[in-house]
């Protein structure tokens, strides 16, 4: 009998993104600790690998005003995860912390402390930021040219790992001595080895630089892809990069971020999904997305009318400060949107934005969604998913109650946790364990 690949699941806490639907009467607080507890404990009941907190270092501005999808209220990541460690027992605790604005020694201490407090369940989602707008909140400005972001990130991770490693067997107390282009660090590490050796490292990125960085350093990569074929291509590409870094395919889990909508019938689910997308993309939000591509003030355009005939202003792409949604040539994006609108019967601005800015989504009955997810994993489009629900804090409730049992019935999802640590959940080696003969082949 063939043993099926097991699906890994993480859960992204909703609240700071363009997915959360605040107008839904079931929507709750994104700052009340009870919301975090509900979400994390439900994910743990669903035997998920980890819960995942996003990062927001500055409120984004669109044409000089706070963007209407941004929210005031982002509790400190380490504070929330440490508190969640006390009210959960198995679920992994993943936090997004920037490599551009933080120091290796601080990061090593904070994540090792969380790993100790949670008995081996800590994870670090490593991200970079290139914009000076965010850096204005930091003493040194924080701005780095795009090409230097990953250089600094690689050095941050290397020094952080060296500090963790020094705790493994450094009885001299001298610790490490590092001199590089970004950091000079010399000294001992104040903590004993944490339960996982190293907290799990997650990398968010789809670019060629991001893929290389993940292949060299990460245990999991948080990615985006819209189709089974695109997922398989990404999966094959990233896994093929691992051997040059002395790593095996099992050492890096590919976990795309996905949404889901459940219904009693597939038709009901698709109707609900359409309703949710219209809530996520209001008329005002559609114009804001459009302005980010066109680099122009377009408030006079009707969201239910056609796309503009005017060409994008290529010198004013960053009309939204704090986040670049479209790194590609805006003229190419605009033409792609026009072609898409024409090919689908003349879609309006809002309809195009709804279609072109959504995540990969699984829609249908719990059985249908389970089958769709299973196909992606069994056909090597990914190793699992990071679920991005649209409701805070109950967005996982029906998934845990109805989809998880379907996945278990298919033989592709665990019925109990395999061990106490997040590395156990993800099937990852201890950082200092050698490759087996099978893994290195």
From TrEMBL:
<feature type="domain" description="Luciferase-like">
    <location>
        <begin position="25"/>
        <end position="378"/>
    </location>
</feature>
<dbReference type="InterPro" id="IPR036661">
    <property type="entry name" value="Luciferase-like_sf"/>
</dbReference>
<feature type="binding site">
    <location>
        <position position="96"/>
    </location>
    <ligand>
        <name>FMN</name>
    </ligand>
</feature>
<comment type="similarity">
    <text>Belongs to the NtaA/SnaA/DszA monooxygenase family.</text>
</comment>
<dbReference type="InterPro" id="IPR051260">
    <property type="entry name" value="Diverse_substr_monoxygenases"/>
</dbReference>
<keyword id="KW-0288">FMN</keyword>
<dbReference type="Pfam" id="PF00296">
    <property type="entry name" value="Bac_luciferase"/>
</dbReference>
<keyword id="KW-0503">Monooxygenase</keyword>
<feature type="binding site">
    <location>
        <position position="207"/>
    </location>
    <ligand>
        <name>FMN</name>
    </ligand>
</feature>
<dbReference type="InterPro" id="IPR016215">
    <property type="entry name" value="NTA_MOA"/>
</dbReference>
<protein>
    <submittedName>
        <fullName>FMN-dependent oxidoreductase (Nitrilotriacetate monooxygenase family)</fullName>
    </submittedName>
</protein>
<dbReference type="GO" id="GO:0016705">
    <property type="term" value="F:oxidoreductase activity, acting on paired donors, with incorporation or reduction of molecular oxygen"/>
</dbReference>
<keyword id="KW-0285">Flavoprotein</keyword>
<keyword id="KW-0560">Oxidoreductase</keyword>
<dbReference type="GO" id="GO:0004497">
    <property type="term" value="F:monooxygenase activity"/>
</dbReference>
<feature type="region of interest" description="Disordered">
    <location>
        <begin position="413"/>
        <end position="441"/>
    </location>
</feature>
<dbReference type="InterPro" id="IPR011251">
    <property type="entry name" value="Luciferase-like_dom"/>
</dbReference>
<feature type="binding site">
    <location>
        <position position="150"/>
    </location>
    <ligand>
        <name>FMN</name>
    </ligand>
</feature>
